[in-house]
């Protein structure tokens, strides 16, 4: 069938017209998307920086609180108070209450939940907005470090981070808390940052987080943690910059990630958004454009098809019909649709194919008759092969006066002749063939008493059909060419096997055997036309197997474990029948 049909040419022309339009639209759309992505990245970076500035401003404001508190007269005077007894006196209690009130006012001055603690080494007491208690000086010394300290608290989903800042008076006593006159600690936890992240997310962002490589992650409360962790794993593959944006591929989806670092805390504010959410309106516009182009192409193709169906389709059907004829499918017919020129051509085509089919059927039947005649001829060539030896045996026994052997041989020969002259069937059950082979072996055992034989055929195989006289020639060759030339006892074994996709009947003997070169010569001779120099037994068996079962059937030769030759008769299992005449 020609490839460039009329319909294809018309469709190709339409496509060539639409491709430049689609290409220009695609280029314009891609440029717009890139500009939009750049602007969005800049906008996201500005919002992150603004958010980071808010957090830093709060933390820097908290850093001034201890300095402001020390300027308070009550708190500054608290450093010079000493206890003369285990309990506070009235003046001391009033002083502590005033300090607690001022701490509470200071903590309430911010939207963040903070906690202020004042440590007095002279009293050995810690004052908070609602309590006064003793403290462990060693523990305090361990926790005191310059700048903001961050500590992870809890595990799993309950984990949070505690931020603390210490101020000592005088500052020179920072590393020796026991020498300080006054120590102030400011604390807040990561829930304050989570509140800001939640508010930032509610403005339309997608899962903003705080991240510090040596500490961990502060998630917003509705964060998609598995997705966030996957993005962080990819980000860690390259060093993070103070301010940057990246595009990451994750599970087939592209994410736009913006990063802003805090100089105050060392934490990174990271925000990400799927790129498809950004370009979704553009993609929808693209889909509408492509759908309109597709509809235009579809309508154009429909118009082309109207012309194509009237001319090209009938021609194509006619060409396909000729291809089937080329592959010898003579059952092909064309159905004429409509009363037009092609209807007339199809009628004439059907008439021509019908005449060709009838001619070939006649020729095929003649070939079948020739094949059957050849099969009968091959069978008839096998029948006389055994009689000569039998008559020679009867003659010898008669000369020796062994009439019992003559009678037995004549009886077996009668049975043998009756089986070999059954030309009314091409195939017989394997059991009948085995009975015939057993009679043959009994006759040979009369000639050579040392001969031993065994038949090991599964019961299920005995009902299968095989061509007439295909096992006996193999047994005869084993006896005549394997056992008799060898002095002493000999054995013949007949077995049946069901292999992968094929059936096998194996005949092996304990005779003198053959070399590998002799076997190879035997294999070659069976593939050549029969000549006067070779015996017809094995050649006829192989030819009959090929006629009955095709090229996959035949004979195999190998060395036998009994010492002689192993001959394997094989044919495809799908060609095996059980009841006579079912083929």
UniProtKB/TrEMBL annotation:
Residues annotated as domain HAMP: 309-361
Transmembrane feature ranges: 6-27, 288-308
Top-level taxonomic group: Bacteria
Annotated Pfam families: HAMP, HATPase_c, His_kinase
Protein's membrane topology: Multi-pass membrane protein
Key words of the record: Cell membrane, Kinase, Membrane, Phosphoprotein, Transferase, Transmembrane, Transmembrane helix
Molecular function in Gene Ontology: phosphorelay sensor kinase activity
Subcellular location: Cell membrane
Any single GO CC term annotated in Swiss-Prot or TrEMBL for this entry: plasma membrane
Gene3D superfamilies hit by this protein: 6.10.340.10, Histidine kinase-like ATPase, C-terminal domain
Protein name (Swiss-Prot/TrEMBL): Two-component sensor histidine kinase
Species of origin: Paenibacillus rhizosphaerae
């Amino acid at each position: 069938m020609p490839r460039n049909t009329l319909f294809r040419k018309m469709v190709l022309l339409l496509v060539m017209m639409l491709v430049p339009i689609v290409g220009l639209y695609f280029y314009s759309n891609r440029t717009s998307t890139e500009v939009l992505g750049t602007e969005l990245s800049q906008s996201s970076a500005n919002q992150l920086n603004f958010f980071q500035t808010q957090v830093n401003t709060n933390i820097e404001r908290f850093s001034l609180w201890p300095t402001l508190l020390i300027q308070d007269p009550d708190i500054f005077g608290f450093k010079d108070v000493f206890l003369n007894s285990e309990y506070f006196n009235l003046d001391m209690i009033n002083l502590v209450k005033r300090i607690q009130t001022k701490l509470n006012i200071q903590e309430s001055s911010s939207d963040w939940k903070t906690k202020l603690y004042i440590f007095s080494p002279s009293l050995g007491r810690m004052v908070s907005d609602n309590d006064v208690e003793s403290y462990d000086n060693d523990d305090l010394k361990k926790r005191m470090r310059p700048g903001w300290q961050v500590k992870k608290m809890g595990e799993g989903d309950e984990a949070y981070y505690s931020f603390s800042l210490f101020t000592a008076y005088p500052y020179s006593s920072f590393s020796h808390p026991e020498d300080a006159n006054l120590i102030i600690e400011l604390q807040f936890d990561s829930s304050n940052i989570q509140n800001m992240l939640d508010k930032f997310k509610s403005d339309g962002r997608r899962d903003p987080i705080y991240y510090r490589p040596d500490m961990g992650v502060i998630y917003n409360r509705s964060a998609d943690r598995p997705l966030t962790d996957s993005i962080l794993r990819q980000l860690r593959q390259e060093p993070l910059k103070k301010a940057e944006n990246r595009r990451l591929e994750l599970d087939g989806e592209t994410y736009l990630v913006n990063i802003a670092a805090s100089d105050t805390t060392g934490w990174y504010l990271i925000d990400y958004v799927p790129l498809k959410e950004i370009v979704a309106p553009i993609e929808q516009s693209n889909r509408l454009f492509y759908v309109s182009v597709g509809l235009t192409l579809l309508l154009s193709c429909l118009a082309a098809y109207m012309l194509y169906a009237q001319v090209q389709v009938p021609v194509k059907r006619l060409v396909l019909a000729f291809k089937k004829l080329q592959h010898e499918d003579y059952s092909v017919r064309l159905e004429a649709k409509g009363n037009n020129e092609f209807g007339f051509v199809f009628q004439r085509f059907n008439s021509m194919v019908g005449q060709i089919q009838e001619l070939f059927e006649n020729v095929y039947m003649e070939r079948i008759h020739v094949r059957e005649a050849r099969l009968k001829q091959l069978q008839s060539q096998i029948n006389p092969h055994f009689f000569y030896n039998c008559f020679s045996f009867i003659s010898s026994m008669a000369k020796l006066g062994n009439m019992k052997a003559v009678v037995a041989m004549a009886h077996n020969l009668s049975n043998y002749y009756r089986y070999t002259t059954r030309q009314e069937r091409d195939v017989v059950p394997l059991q009948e063939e085995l009975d015939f082979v057993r009679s043959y072996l009994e006759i040979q055992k009369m000639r050579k008493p040392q001969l031993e034989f065994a038949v090991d055929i599964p019961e299920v195989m005995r009902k299968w059909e095989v061509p007439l006289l295909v096992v006996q020639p193999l047994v005869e060759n084993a006896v005549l060419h394997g056992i008799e030339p060898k002095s002493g006892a000999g054995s013949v074994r007949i077995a049946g096997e069901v292999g992968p996709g094929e059936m096998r009947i194996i005949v092996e003997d304990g005779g003198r055997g053959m070399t590998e070169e002799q076997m190879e010569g035997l294999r070659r001779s069976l593939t050549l036309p029969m000549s006067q120099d070779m015996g017809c037994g094995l050649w006829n068996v192989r030819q009959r197997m090929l006629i009955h079962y095709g090229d996959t059937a035949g004979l195999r030769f190998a060395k036998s474990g009994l010492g002689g030759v192993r001959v394997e008769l094989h044919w495809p299992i799908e060609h095996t029948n059980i009841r006579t005449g079912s083929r």
